[in-house]
Amino acid sequence: MNLTLDHLRRYAVARSLFKPTTLMRAIGKLGFVQADPIRAPARAQDLTLRHRVTGYRAGELEQRYPRLALEEDFFVNYGFLPREHHALMHPREARVVWTPTRWKQAHAVREFVAERGPVHPREVDAHFAHGKTTNWFGGSSNASTQLLDGMHYRGMLRVARRDGGTRVYALREADTTPVDEVVAHERLDALLDIVIRKYAPLPAASLGQLLGYLRSGVPQWQGLRAAALKRARERLGTARIDGVEWYWPADENPRAVRWKPDDAVRLLTPFDPVVWDRRRFELFWGWAYRFEAYTPAPKRKLGYYALPLLWHDRVIGWANLSVAGGELQSQFGFVDGRAPRDAAFRRACEAELERMRAFLGLLE
Q1: Beta-carbon contacts of residue 128 (< 8 Å; ≥ 6 apart)
Q2: Which DSSP symbol is given to 119?
Q3: Among residues of the chain, what percentage have pLDDT more than 70?
């Protein structure tokens, strides 16, 4: 049987939307979970996990994080990783070189954290009075916040928890063990495999794009990326369909009957691995989804935080959800201009909204 785009689409949906399990097992299967601060009606990490964790409720990851073997950090994007995945990136060398003065400040803050225990950025700012600085988008922010971010990135600190959404930092024993080129290649391969297992199957261009994003996690190995891509192409499953080269883990068969999407309707976060790759999205579903939270309101076509609407193995529309007066409000849009007339779709859609109410705590 020739491999078709239909095979790949069903494979992509079914392998990512695995049977719900425990929080740590779900994150382990995903490899990492992308985070985003926008809450509409919940944060991206929660909207991702609700489909994959039994009985998951909004905010559960943040609440349980201090007790779990997880780290917040940059990878191909910012989010949550199992510690064994996080360790593969360190010791990390930042692309921005600090001055001796900056290093002196960092060591002073590190001693402060070692003495005090987990600290809120306000505590550091109050103690050291580092002043203000220009942030990446041209505004003003506390210099202490930027310093803490840099220390976290370099592995000097870790995120211990969040208070009201703000990162609280604790001491992390920095890994200073030298990594030779052989180990660096092995680690880069392992990191790329984590990415591939999350987003497979991948068009060749998306595979290269994600390898480029790995610069956020391991800038010290930028010069090794071309060789890593070559090795990946040699060890992965691959096929060319309609002029596009596709890649997936070699131990999986996209034609297997096990990859059978269910009958549920699912509202996905824009960052869900099923829809994250916009290139793949258009190949699979034939229309362009756009994340418009940062688009001026008059120019939006789908909405501020439109959630792709998946039914079976098709993304047939989107929904914008909000909570007002303790009630879930929903507005739907459909690629074909109207909802399917199938009664099964209506039942499945209402069941998804009921799951969303439970996830948001609106049924309690």
Answers
A1: 105, 108, 109, 112, 144
A2: B
A3: 96
Give how far Cα 249 sits from Cα of 12, 202, 278, 299, Å.
12, 10, 20, 39
* Strands 78-82 and 70-74, bridge-based pairing: antiparallel
Size of the chain in residues: 364
Is cis: bond before 308, omega within 30 of 0? no
State yes or no: cis peptide before 201, omega within 30 of 0.
yes
Q: Is the peptide bond before 41 cis (omega within 30 degrees of 0)?
A: yes
Q: How far is CA 108 from the centre of its chain?
A: 33
Bond into 82 cis (ω within 30): no
CB-based contact 267:321 (threshold 8 Å)? yes
Residue 58's CB is within 10 A of a number of other CB atoms, namely 21
Given a contact cutoff of 8 angstroms between Cβ atoms, the answer to whether 248 and 11 are in contact is yes
Amino acid at 229: L
Q: Which residues, 6 or more positions from 310, have their beta carbon under 8 angstroms from its beta carbon?
A: 13, 265, 266, 267, 268, 274, 275, 316
- Given a contact cutoff of 8 angstroms between Cβ atoms, the answer to whether 32 and 198 are in contact is yes
Nearest to 79 by CA among 131, 138, 27, 136: 27
Output the pLDDT for position 173: 86
How many CB atoms neighbour CB 121 within 10 A?
A: 20
Name the token pair of 328: 């879930």
d(CA 243, CA 30): 29
Nearest of 260, 267, 262 to residue 315 by alpha carbon: 267
Whether 57 contacts 359, CB under 8 Å:
yes
Residue 252: φ, ψ to 5° = -120, 145
pLDDT tens digits along 204-228: 999 999 999 999 999 999 999 999 9
> How do strand 166-171 and strand 157-163 relate by DSSP bridges?
antiparallel
* Closest listed residue to residue 293, CA positions, set 60, 45, 43, 61: 43
Q: Is the pLDDT of residue 249 over 80?
A: yes
- First-to-final CA distance of the chain: 50
Q: Please give the Cα distance from 121 to 140 (Å, whole number).
A: 15
